[in-house]
Specification:
The complex is a heterotrimer of chains A (about 140), B (about 120) and C (about 90).
Chain A: E1 7-12, H1 21-31, E2 38-44, H2 65-76, E3 79-83, H3 84-89, H4 95-100, E4 112-115, H5 117-126, E5 129-133
Parallel strand pairs in A: 1-2, 1-5, 2-3, 3-4
Helix pairs in contact in A: 1-2
Chain B: E1 6-10, H1 19-32, E2 38-41, H2 63-69, E3 78-81, H3 82-87, E4 99-102, H4 104-109, E5 113-116
Chain C: E1 3-7, H1 16-23, E2 29-32, E3 53-57, H2 58-64, E4 73-75, H3 77-86, E5 89-93
Parallel strand pairs in C: 1-2, 1-5, 2-3, 3-4
Classes of the chains: A alpha/beta (about 140), B alpha/beta (about 120), C alpha/beta (about 90).
């Protein structure tokens, strides 16, 4: 079976630290290149949007999930897309959204990007696989 | 690639969580991009199809109104899993209009991408 | 054109395996991950029809002290990746 060089979209719906979903998604994504695949898009939806909280500050002896996502973005050049409707509701705003809503601080930064659900659909249509990591 | 078919499976009940709304919003966005997905209600998801629902405790738009609007976007019928309905002591007469019985295994096998909510 | 089904919930607190029994097709694969690996021991997996390949993610089994199973085979993270590549689609049950 031909399975070389596939592109993956991951949908992460679990919130960090209280559920295993983020950890599982990262472990899975980090294992892709060894088989010639890569993650092209990570889409954070539902409580998964908390993975993008820029002030995430875990204890030193615990994995820093935000840094792991950033590292994944660097090594596999994947997009880190955050559902804007889910994020803004929950207080995750980039500079533009913060300004628009009259907040003095932003809580979400690049390489994470606020996007609409259309980007999830595009990723599902264009990449070879979609894997959902749920709470 | 763009001819991929998408199946949205809703397996959670409405009102108590946002899963149903998020599944429906995903389906609507697919339709807006000219890729109306198939939508299937299984497990507790069939409870979203009950008629006579009202706005929920989350103070958000009830999912029932969204469901009734799906046909305008070429997302029809509302497929449901018969076994899930029976297990919950329900009958198709108790569901909103536009629902149709599905075989879940065939449904999965006929689509390229499956999104679960 | 087979399907990989991902189970991440304990089968003792959800009805997922019964629902899954109707949702699988011959040649499908079921992979137990996270709390789903608790299904690896016991008899609940017998509810699934024959002709389905059953797997459990090794690292989630090890962290939970789930050591062996009569019904499912262990697979590591590379094996998880391989299963997603060789099947046509993945369905997450939660």
């Amino acid at each position: 079976m031909v399975s070389q060089g596939l592109t993956y979209a991951l949908m992460v719906q679990g919130t960090p630290y209280s559920q295993q979903a983020s950890h599982s998604a990262l472990r899975f994504a980090e294992a892709l290149p060894a088989q010639g695949h890569r993650v092209a898009t990570v889409f954070f939806y539902h409580d998964g949007v908390y993975n993008a909280a820029s002030m995430m500050t875990p204890p030193r002896d615990e994995p820093h999930l935000l840094e792991r996502w950033r590292a994944l973005h660097q090594t596999q050049q994947c997009e880190l897309l955050v559902c804007v409707a889910s994020a803004v509701r929950r207080g995750l705003l980039d500079e533009g959204e913060a300004r628009r809503h009259g907040h003095s601080h932003s809580t979400l930064e690049a390489p994470f990007e606020l996007t609409g659900l259309g980007q999830l659909m595009q990723a599902a249509l264009h990449h070879d696989r979609l894997i959902t990591f749920a709470p | 690639m763009d001819s991929k078919s998408i199946l949205v499976i809703v397996r959670h009940p409405p009102h108590g969580s946002s899963w149903v709304r998020e599944g429906l919003e995903t389906a609507l966005v697919g339709a807006a991009l000219s890729h109306p997905p198939t939508i299937l209600f299984s497990g507790d998801g069939v409870l979203a199809l009950l008629s006579h629902q009202q706005r929920g405790a989350l103070g958000q738009k009830g999912s029932a109104a969204m469901l009734e609007g799906l046909s305008f976007y070429d997302i029809e019928p509302l497929w449901y899993d018969q076994r899930s309905l029976e297990d919950r002591g329900l009958d198709v007469d108790q569901l909103m209009s536009g629902c149709q019985q599905a075989c879940i295994a065939d449904m999965i096998a006929r689509h390229d991408v499956v999104m679960s909510f | 054109m087979s399907t990989l089904h991902l189970i991440n919930r304990s089968p003792f607190s959800t009805n997922i395996l019964q629902e899954l029994a109707d949702a699988v097709s011959q040649g499908d694969h079921v992979l137990l991950v996270e709390d789903g690996v608790y299904a690896a021991s016991g008899t609940l997996l017998h509810a699934l029809p024959k002709g389905i390949e059953l797997w459990a993610l090794e690292e989630d089994c090890m962290s939970r002290g789930v050591t062996s199973s009569d019904t499912s085979k262990m697979v590591d993270m590379a094996g998880f990746v391989a299963l997603t590549a060789t099947t046509h689609r993945t369905v997450s049950w939660f």
